[in-house]
């Protein structure tokens, strides 16, 4: 069953209540009307945004749903949000339905960014603005913008955290490490990996770290579907094949996100060996606790509230006729994110933050839920 969320009527009611309450004191609040550069204005209630999301493979996707609904309601725009838990074909169908429903903007968090070419071509033909959310679309030029945390930088932060953790916790180098990547159909996965290797490769080359299994190509280390079971199985297999006997264990493991980090840590735990320095991403509840307690070395904070807000703001600005609008907290990058070779997409990038036990309280200070986890874990 599809979840088809319409907030338009609620929004319209609250807009009305707002203007009545304001009694003309503020004739055009930004939540009721959006102005384009040309001076033309579009009523917020005329803007509908189709939000096509992937499976809920990590907490950030789960949290995004309510955040989108709340922020769309606050801005008075209509948002239709759907998750494609059934996979690529379901997502293709959901996008087609949104186009038929007459949305003005499509925000797409793709399951497989290379398989939506037909749908986004139809969207462009219908005059819809196409924005890739969090994950880039590939194999297409029918894309207007990309908005995400800087995912190459996420990888760099993870690579550096791995080295810092090894230095702090695992004695003198050289250190044995293993590498894990995300799902190969998600365009982010290679960005994370390339970012991490940007930092780690020189240390592999000079012998500071050794990938003992020899598995260091992205295709060898990827984790299909971002499924924790796949990462846990591969880690268990590595322990048997490469770290036989005694207390042999890698000193560090590069993990692209928290879900996989916990699966990797669980595999080592079950073998009874010493937990390596393991990186992560997303600041998922359980990993925040593990980071503060030292069981997982690091995570990344990509505040979903900020990404949702920036995405809806960008959608409203473009639907109001603005071209390349500026968006709070986002830096524009016109060169580094290509949807096809030679087709760089105007990208709005937010800044990710590395989190370790040392800085968790500082990084999460404006996030009540995560602060509570930090305080409880101490
Ligand atoms: C997101 C990550 C997330 C992963 C799995 C990626 O595309 O950027 O934050 O951990 O998907 O859901």
Features:
378 residues; alpha/beta; Rossmann fold; 2 domains; seven-stranded mixed sheet; four-stranded parallel sheet; 13 helices; disordered N terminus; binds beta-D-glucopyranose
Could you characterize the architecture of this molecule?
With 378 residues, this protein is of the alpha/beta class. It has two domains: 6-143 and 303-350, Rossmann fold (3-Layer(aba) Sandwich); 151-302 and 355-377, Rossmann fold, CATH 3.40.50. It has 13 helices and 17 strands. The chain has helices at 8-22, 59-75, 88-100, 117-125, 151-169, 187-205, 218-221, 228-242, 258-271, 285-293, 304-319, 360-363, 368-377; strands spanning 33-35, 41-43, 48-53, 78-83, 105-108, 129-133, 145-149, 175-179, 209-211, 252-254, 277-278, 298-301, 331-333, 338-340, 343-344, 346-350, 353-356. Strands 4-3-5-6-7-16-13 form a seven-stranded mixed beta sheet, sandwiched between helices. A hairpin with a 2-residue loop joins strand 14 (338-340) and strand 15 (343-344). Helix 2 (59-75) crosses helix 11 (304-319) and helix 10 (285-293) runs parallel beside helix 13. The longest helix is centred in the middle third of the chain and has 19 residues, at 151-169. It is globular and about 70 Å long. It starts with 7 loop residues before the first helix and ends with a helix. Mean pLDDT is 90; it is low at 1-33 and 35-40. The structure holds beta-D-glucopyranose. The site of beta-D-glucopyranose has 13 residues, from helix 2.
Question: Could you outline the blueprint of secondary structure elements for this entry?
Answer:
Elements: H1 8-22, E1 33-35, E2 41-43, E3 48-53, H2 59-75, E4 78-83, H3 88-100, E5 105-108, H4 117-125, E6 129-133, E7 145-149, H5 151-169, E8 175-179, H6 187-205, E9 209-211, H7 218-221, H8 228-242, E10 252-254, H9 258-271, E11 277-278, H10 285-293, E12 298-301, H11 304-319, E13 331-333, E14 338-340, E15 343-344, E16 346-350, E17 353-356, H12 360-363, H13 368-377
Parallel strand pairs: 3-4, 3-5, 5-6, 6-7, 7-16, 8-9, 8-10, 10-11
Antiparallel strand pairs: 1-2, 12-17, 13-16, 14-15
Helix pairs in contact: 1-2, 2-11, 3-4, 5-6, 8-9, 10-13
This protein binds beta-D-glucopyranose.
